[in-house]
Design goal:
By secondary structure, the chain is of the alpha/beta class. The protein is built from 3 helices and 6 strands; from the N terminus they run βαββββααβ.
Amino acid sequence: MFLVPRSTKIYMGRSPVNMGKSFDGLSNEVRAVLRKDPLSGHIFIFFNRRRTIAKMIVWTRGGYTIVAKRLERGTFALPEAADAVCVELDIHELALLLEGITWDRGRQSPRWEPSQHSRHGAESSQCILHQPA
């Protein structure tokens, strides 16, 4: 499990990415495709076309950190998203995704959350916030 501050957002790219990309290539994907700032300290996660490899990139003090996971069997079960370039996840959803738990089986009881306006401020983007069923 990752220890991530509550203020850190997690953005999952919806379109497949060439997993040969490293620091510069992934940070360019964040800028060009997700329209986000890769230096923000938020976590950005991408998948290959077959959904067998995931790479996360985050700016930490002094440089980028990349974490990769390759599945030996199966594929990552990505959440449904209508025409979104990216989906915003929380740390629990990321943990489920990386462990191969599908969204329809992993149920989370409702929790109180501040209103969308106060959570996202003026930040408007092409990302949707994933709402568990």
